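Repro:
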Amino acid sequence: MGRSKSGLKQDLVGRALRLVQTDYSPELLKNVRQLYESRFPKTSGWLAARRPEGVPVAYSSLSSSPTATSQGADYLNGISKPIQAPAAEVKLVPLPFYQTLETLLSPTELIAQNNEKLQDSQCIFELTPNQADQIRNASELRPGIRSIQVVLRICYTDSIGVQEDQYPPNIAVKVNQSYCHVPGYYPSNKPGVEPRRPCRPVNITPWLHLSNVTNRVTVTWGNFGKRYSVAVYLVRVFTAADLFSQLKLCSVESAERCRERIQDKLRFDPESEIATTGLRVSLICPLVKMRLGVPCRVLTCAHLQCFDAVFFLQMNEKKPTWTCPVCDKPAPFELLTIDGLLSEILKETSEDIEEIEYLTDGSWRPISDDKERDRERERSNTPEYPVVDICIPEANGHSPAHSSTSLTGKSGNGSVGMGGGAGGPAVAPGGGAVVDLTLDSSSEEEGGGAGGDSEDTEDSADSPAPKRGRYNYDKDLVTAY
C-alpha cells in the first residue's frame, strides 16, 4: 500500500507475501477481492462464501505448510486452485466397412519406457460372456473370417479433430504370446516412389481367449519422436456388397434433381465471356474402362462424370483410399450418391454408345452419330491418287504406265507414244504427264514434230531393245505428277 509496484519479480513476490502475512487488514482483503473479481468475474462470490468479512486469519501457518499448497485445492488467502481440465480424448475416424459395437479399450497413448528405439507397450482387457457369444455365433464372411471381430486400431495422439489409422514404424502386435498378422506394404508401380502401407484395423480375434480370461496385447513400435495411441473395439465387418445395398437404399439422386444440377451448370452467365452450351459425359467407367453399370459420383465434386459404384466399393474394400477417380478429391462413403438420370440413360441407350452430351434444358443426346458422320466425311474427302503398275511389262518392252489404278480400285487406259500425239509429252490418267527420259535434248529438237522423220523411225526400229533391270521392267518412263 503506497509502495513501488516496479522491481524484480522475486522481490515483488516476497513483498506481497510479507504484506499478507504481517500487515493483514480489512482494507487489504477488500483490495484482494476486487483484484480477483476483475480477473475471474464468474466466481465473484468466492471469498464471502468461504469466510465472513472481518474474521482475521493466521496466515503464518500457510507459509510453513508446503504440502497444503501442493496437494490441496487452495492457494494463498483461500483462492481456489484452478482445476486442470482432463486431457481430451483421441477420436478415431469412423470406417465404412466397420461398425463399432462396443469399446473394449479407449484410446491409450503408447508410453516409451526408456531411450531405446524399439519399445514394447502392453494393454489388457477382458471379454464379457455376451461379447464372447457374439463372436462365436457370428457368420463367416469367408473361411476363417467372421463378421463380428475384435480389432486393434492405432493412430497419432492428437485430440484435434478425428484421427485416421496410422501405424508407427517397426510395428509388431503380439496377442497372448502369439504374433498376429499386420498388413504389409503395397508395392509401388511408379519409379522413385516408396511403397505405401495400408493402415487399417488389425484383426486380433483368432488369438483371443473367448472367456473371462484376461487378454494381453503387446505392441512393439519404433520410438522416433511421434506419439501414438491404441484402442480396441468390438466391431461388425461389412462387405462391398453390404455397402452397395446401403447405397442403393439411402443415397440415390432423382433424375429431376440431376436435371436441375445440369441446368445450373449450363445456365448463361452474362459476366462470363464463354457460354457453355453442352457438357459431354462418358458412359465408360474411368476405373475399369468398361460401360457403367451403376453410375455413382461424389456430392461435393463439381463434375458430372460418374464411375461405377460396384467396382469403386470393391477396390476400396481391398485397398481403402476413398478418392474420386475423376478429380482425385476425397470421396468418403457418406457423400456417395447414385445418379438417377444417368441410370435411365444407360437403360435407354445401346451398348455401342459411349458418350452423351447434356444440353442447357436438361435434356441429352448421344454423340456416337457425330463420330460416324466424321468418319464418312473423312472417307469422302480422301483424294484419289493414281497408282502406276510397273510389274507387268508389255510386248514392246515398255512399262505400262498408261494402265493405272487409283486407291479406290478404278482403272483407266490411255495411249502413250514416244513422240506422237500433239508433239508433247503424253498425259496419263489423273492428270500426270508421261516423259521419255531416254531421249536427249538433240533428239527432242530433231524429232519434236507431230510425227517425226522417217529416219528417226528407222533408227528407232534398228536400235536395240532397252535394257531391263533385275526386276524385269525398264526404267525409261516415269509418270510426273
